[in-house]
Batch of 2 targets.
Target 1
Amino acid sequence: MAAILSVSGSPSATSRTGRLLRHVDARLVSGGHQVSTLDVRDLPAEALLRADFHHPAIADAAERFRQADGIVIGTPVYKAAYSGLLKALLDLLPQYALAGKTVLPLATGGSTAHVLALDYALRPVLTSMGAAHIVPGWFTLDKDITVDGDRTVIAAASAQALDRTAEVFSAALTTGVGALAATA
Ligand SMILES: Cc1cc2nc3c(=O)[nH]c(=O)nc-3n(C[C@H](O)[C@H](O)[C@H](O)COP(=O)(O)O)c2cc1C
């Protein structure tokens, strides 16, 4: 069993990215992992905007990254990149905050024209932060994530792809590829 931190970089109170993450979190819990969540929008805005590295909430977030074996990072695509909110947090974490971690990048967006944002914008930052293993991510169209009462409904093809993505992440955590890379 791995300890996973599931991080949402959406500023939205009705976030589709958040709903997507909860869907993936549930799959990971079913796979025997322990998942805790971090919504960057819940961190103090002033600390994020003023780069207050020493704010207790920022220090606590950094510690939660440190303690996790695996990190799921979800972001909406904004202006063909990941969200500024997510960037604000990443900028406050130590340079190698992802050292030894297995990371799963996820994105939601309005256009498949920006599927590549995961790989040309987010992945290089995760690499530069020392991630030991970044498994293939997944981009989900916002229209494929709908709400039925309290329930999140994800279009069948997207749900299937997400399940597969979560399985690959889970297997990477279980085989400990990231941990091996960290000690190499
Ligand atoms: C300011 C802003 C910029 C956006 N820019 C893009 C974009 O460049 N490409 C894209 O595919 N979708 C874009 N979108 C659509 C969002 O990525 C999409 O609706 C996403 O699912 C929103 O996630 P959220 O509900 O978690 O915030 C943008 C949305 C907003 C509000």
Target 2
Amino acid sequence: MTTTTSAPLLAAEGITVRFGGLTALDDVGLAVAPGTVVGLIGPNGAGKTTLFNVVSGIVRPQRGAVSWKGRRLQRHRPHHLADLGIARTLQGLNLFPGLSALDNVMVGADRLARGGALAMLTGLGRYHSDERRLRERAMAALEEFGAADAARAMPGTLPFGVQKRVALARAVVAEPELLLLDEPASGLSGEDIAALGEAIRSFGARMGVLLVEHHMDLVMDVCDHIVVLNFGEVIATGTPAEIQADPVVAQAYLGAAEEEGEHG
Ligand SMILES: Nc1ncnc2c1ncn2[C@@H]1O[C@H](COP(=O)(O)OP(=O)(O)OP(=O)(O)O)[C@@H](O)[C@H]1O
Ligand SMILES: [Mg+2]
């Protein structure tokens, strides 16, 4: 146990999810405190995305509860997350192809705008001072991720790594209290992963982060605490050093690699 005094922002307890006869999650729990980065790792099919989807309100668990700041979330849905102060990025990019990078980030700032960014972008409502303020914040967010040069470009014209930075800027521009990241490093090259690590450590100091990721170097580099799933069960929790030294974790990954080898 750590001696941290801050109550968790997010807590999932006793989460069980079955898809037909398959138990994707079996009595799984985790907590994310403010200003900490929690990694959720495990071999393919371990249940990481399922837990991410439970937290996001996409999958309803058969048992267990998700709490936000000590209050149980009842029937929450993905569109409730922004109002709670939770942002997320998904495995895909989900950028609006017809909006510039800057306008995409401004959509993420919607929560901060009185009329909402969409009202603003469609020319409705009292929004001019809001628009200037949001534009500045969106630009600052792009700068934070080293993507300021891309502000006026359409997403489709940008390299994949830059599009990812834009998606991250959109997720953090409204200063969420919790950021959910599902495989942010997938498809990125070494240099972009290193930059992503720096970015996560930077915004991870001011918000809670739940990071689902396969790139172990990144996970070990940025996480304060790690939860390891295998076949829907938590098999280990601890600091990066503890997880790296845990033979049960090594065995789980080894077993998964052998199985993949047999199939491939
Ligand atoms: N909607 C669904 N219907 C049926 N089975 C599902 C569904 N979603 C996930 N599963 C199954 O639940 C298990 C956990 O899947 P999940 O996607 O959560 O794993 P994961 O840890 O995210 O894997 P990966 O690392 O490959 O992304 C897998 O066996 C998967 O096939
Ligand atoms: Mg997944």
